[in-house]
Amino acid sequence: MDIPYTTTPREDTGLYNAKVGIWLFLASEVMLFGALFSSYILLRVGADWWPAPRSILNIPIGTFNTAVLIISSVTVVLAWASLKMNQLSKFKLYQGITILCALIFVGVKSVEYTEKWKHYEIWLNDGSNYSGHIDVNGKHNPFFYTHNKLVSEGVTEITFTKDPHKYGDPLPEKAAGGGEAHAAEAHAHESMVIKTEDIKRLSAFVPAHSTYFAIYFTMTGLHALHVIGGALVMFYLWITAGSWFRSRPEQFTNRIEVSGLFWHFVDLVWIFLFPILYLM
Amino acid sequence: MAATTTAKTHEAHEAHHHEHHDPGFWRSYVFSSDHKVIGIQYGITSLAFLFFGFILIALMRWQLAYPGKAIPFVGGLLEAVLGEVAAGGVMSGNLYNSFGAMHGTIMVFLAIVPLAFAAFGNYVVPLQIGAPDMCFPRINMASYQCFFLGGVVMFASFFVPGGAAQAGWTSYSPLATTIPTDGQTYWLIGMVLLITSSLLGAVNFIATIIQLRAPGMTWMRLPWFVWTQFVTAFILLLAFPPLEAAGLMQLVDKVLGTSFFLPTGLMTAGGAALADVSGGGSPLLWQHLFWFLGHPEVYVLILPAMGIVAEVIANNTRKPIWGYRSLVYSVLAVGFISFIVWAHHMYLTGMGTKISTFFQTTTMIISIPSVIILTCLFISLWGGSIRFNTPMLFALSFLPMFGIGGLTGLPLGFNFSDLLLHDTYYVIAHFHYVVAPGTIFALFAGVYFWYPKITGRKMNETLGQIHFWLSLICMNLVFYPMFKQGVSGMNRRMADGGATYLGVDDVGSGELVGTPQAMIDLNVNISHAAWALGLAQLPFIFNFFWSMFAGRRVENDNPWQATTLEWQTPTPPPHGNFDKEPVVYRGPYEYSVPGAKADFIPQNQPDPA
Amino acid sequence: MNIETLLGLPELASQHGAEVDKLIIYVHYLMAALFVGWLAYFLYCLVRFRRSRNPRADYHGVRGHMSTWLEVGIAAIEAILLLGFAVPLWAKVVDEFPSDEDSTVMRVVAQQFAWNIRYPGEDGVFGRQDAKLLGSDNKFGYDPNDPAGDDDVIPGVNDITVPVNKPVVVKLTSLDVIHSFKLYNLRVNQDAIPGLMVPIHFVPTLPGKYQIVCAQLCGNGHAQMRGFFTVLEPDKYAEWLASQPKSKAAAISFE
Ligand code: HEA
Ligand code: HEA
Ligand code: CUA
Ligand SMILES: [Cu+2]
């Protein structure tokens, strides 16, 4: 005996195997992200400090990425529909656009990430604290420095260039609407030399910086992994489409449907992530 | 009907074909995607881990009975392999904590779950529903490989600097995060692998049960064992991801220095504030996420066991299971409710009245379907014609043993009595009664019961009976005294068996009040019984291997004269299981049907027209 | 059979503890009744329906609804224990706090592997604490300039002393990891969680020297993290209190 319903639906359930499988898998994914969203709420409610995200994250870029994903979830349906109508070349086009969107999304995200990792906050022993950029031993914007790392490398002083507006503070009127906070950083303000021994804590905007960044990077990172995973699968289906579709059209169309369902889920997660991390 | 089926399976056939011409050794036994081979792989691996989990506790029991004394025979070996933590062959506090955490982790995630769910489920479920294999054979194989890797990572963690995880199987933060051993990181990575394995398995089981039931195998004709596996799979599918999320967060806390579970102002042991840590997290968040899995998990440990017991009891009383529908609804109810009782493990974290009332109520509610299940199994005995063979003995003794474990859950379930009992040996006794003489006995029953299907030979009956009686006696000698120890004030996770808290139980005497000497002395008896329990497994281990080659051959494919489909296949079942698709005509337990010739009618036997 | 002696509960030394014991005993009566009844039935079945005695099984087995009534009965008893005992008694323990004036108030801060204790002194007010002041020389962040703290009493670590028959309020927290404050004879147990301060209250009724058990795994010294809880007659207590060092004199460290 061989395994039935790998391609054609079973009569009483109306589903083929892989479709049952993907729905179950997505149910578990809902629980995974659900736990993270619940943690977000709990941490935020219990936090004594939570920044206004719009003073940290670039909302236009985030909005752009949201749009990219929404477009991709349209094209992923069009790709499937093209197969249903037996139009392989159209499928190739739409699937290609979907993959491209995924790449754009990941690319933009990595730019956002690296920008954060070069941006520092410093707490001094006298109680003052600033955000801005650092120069260590003449290196501009080095990655991942902490107080401990400075000490262990024997660095005695660093140059700190303050932001015009400390992040987390309300932005001035103009920037608030247009999100020009980052543009404003370009004309750098006061630089100062700070002794390592005066530093209480130094942290880039990395996960360790605060629970806000911890949850931001964990959730968007996990989401990005899903995007990459989905893109890889769709890419594999894209390059093998021709021969597969010609020999086993129904099976291939099912594969596209299943990967599309996953892709919709990935979009949906982002639709929740964007407002809670960028806007609220 | 038959025609459409062949058409449907045609492409799948082609896709499969080249794979089966000459599979070779690796394809047949190591990288096989056949559910039966995977079931056996799971079975052997998890039995090995069961044994390993026992070795850990056997060593810990030495330290509990004779705190501070060098461990005989193996003490030197431990020192040679693990170094400092076993200096002079004596188990240090660190090592005790490592072994304790790993005993719990290994027993739960690497022994019982894979044996009860993955091994028996893989081997038996497709056969019982009349399916050729699992829905997704290659995912099934990946599930085993993830499990195996997870086991390797867990095992390796014993040998990293600092030793294995030391914060209990519950890994409460901040302890788990701040303790200076990489073992915890290994633990987290291992858990992520094990969780992934469970998820793949769960998806596969559910899809298989939904999609691959043979014609005529309606939901109410499923053997109850399949129902328990179905619900178990749902629990794994939905309860594990939150732990995966929590595990990721704790991993990030450890590796990237975040503070998900570290509050503001945390100090290290030295008293210095933790440098470069932001704080702002919540230790209780971890506990909620952990127990959101942790509680449903205990039903993962028990439901498949109950399923096995039901199969064995029906077969050996030669009558239908009483109240099949109640059993089905009860197991569904247990599955649902198990998601909303988790905080009964957290009553003493400072819980208010409202929340604790909610969790107490759900905890009491979930005990009702358990009582119904047990009651149905009991009533099934009435009017039976009971055969006392080894599988039946183990299945029968499951009932009172689970009874003791389950009933002692009740005083823990009321927060006000948990006040005294929390974190004492009473809790240890409670859950060991459910998982050790409970689940393990059910699993033994399953091994003895299905062994002839897998090997074509029966295990030796005399050795089986010896194994049973010795195990039953030793289990009770181990765990019963723990109730008394717990009530009288002995705490769990004490590396010295509670010796520090020695005292008199007479407040008026003016002397230091504490755990009475008699209770501490019980540790010695318990340890002896635990080691005897280990020895009692020798007949089993011998029987297990010896019978493969020298056991009595079964006279036909259905040696127990059973009704369910797994017995209606060739022995052992070939790849694809059934020669032709079975068709099901009746319920799973048609034993002693009035007017029938034989005292059992297989599910796939057509009615005499 | 007497379940009290069978259980071997430790001698009782607090007011609310009597009710804890009562609930434990009632639940165990329920459990014993169920277990003994079921076991008797079970053993009877095994003998009566063994194959040699009953070679042909009865397809239907039990008819009738006895079991349903039994299940309803168990549910009802559980409901009574829950609503009649556990819930209201818990509410009393966690909600109805005595006033500070009528009780012995203290802060207890757990750390690996010791219990640090501070009484507010005569003024009944603890010194000000501020997370900003935390440091390796000021682990509790007390403000040395706050006069309210000057008369705070700081007995040695691991040693709590209280007067008998007067409510005790313990404000419990932890510095490093989760510990648990447990007094068996007083039926008291509460986790000490870093970042949270949880108050508990109870009334000791018997003078004696008890042990504080750390009931939550907290590291390699967990088994040895013992404290002493001494309950004295009021006059002895007053004597003891007067002999204890005050915050100003005791410097800042608790070590
Ligand atoms: C398989 C595992 C399993 C099962 C089934 C259960 C079942 C139950 N458990 Fe248990 N439990 C654990 C495993 C399990 N538990 C573990 C591992 C822990 C500790 C974790 C840790 O801290 O490390 C724990 C801890 C634990 C606690 C926390 C204690 C504490 O830390 O203070 C509580 C509290 O409510 C609890 C309650 C219950 C209840 C009410 C049930 C109910 O579901 C029980 C219902 C069953 C019955 C009511 C029995 C019915 C049957 C009969 C009456 C038949 C009698 C038969 C004869 C006489 C022949 N359990
Ligand atoms: C499913 C779970 C499970 C199982 C089965 C067991 C089984 C046993 N456990 Fe365990 N235990 C836990 C889960 C489990 N435990 C957990 C979660 C904890 C808490 C950990 C923590 O504090 O974090 C704990 C803690 C715990 C403690 C308390 C430690 C402490 O608090 O300090 C003790 C003390 O005696 C103990 C003893 C035992 C004993 C004697 C057995 C025995 O029943 C073991 C019996 C097994 C055997 C005798 C092996 C049989 C072997 C075979 C049959 C192999 C055959 C092989 C082949 C054929 C290939 N356990
Ligand atoms: Cu402190 Cu255990
Ligand atoms: Cu539970």
Describe, in short, the structure shown.
Chain A has 280 residues and is an alpha+beta fold.
Structural overview:
The complex is a heterotrimer of chains A (280), B (609) and C (255). In chain A, a hairpin with a 4-residue loop joins strand 1 and strand 2. Chain A has 280 residues and is an alpha+beta fold. The N and C termini of chain A lie far apart (56 Å). Chain A is built from eight helices and six strands, in the order H-H-H-E-E-E-H-E-H-H-E-E-H-H. Chain B has 20 helices and two strands. With 255 residues, chain C is an alpha+beta fold. Chain C has two domains: 93 residues, Helix Hairpins (Orthogonal Bundle); 143 residues, Sandwich (Immunoglobulin-like), CATH 2.60.40.420. Chain C is built from four helices and nine strands; from the N terminus they run αααβββββββββα. In chain C, helix 2 runs antiparallel to helix 3. At the B-C interface, helix 6, helix 11, helix 13, helix 14 and helix 16 of B face helix 2, helix 3, strand 6 and strand 8 of C. One heme-A sits at the interface of chains B and C. The site of one heme-A has 33 residues of chain B, from helix 4, helix 6, helix 17, helix 19 and helix 20.
How many individual helices of chain C? 4
- Tell me the β content of chain C: 15-25%
CA-based shape of chain B: globular
* Percentage of residues in DSSP E strands of chain B: under 5%
Mean pLDDT of chain C: 87
* Biggest sheet statistics of chain C: 5 strands, mixed
Which fold name corresponds to the CATH topology of the largest domain in chain C?
A: Immunoglobulin-like
Ligands (ions, cofactors included): heme-A, dinuclear copper ion, copper (II) ion
| CATH-derived architecture of chain B | Up-down Bundle
Ends of chain B: how far apart? Answer: 20 Å
Assembly type: heterotrimer
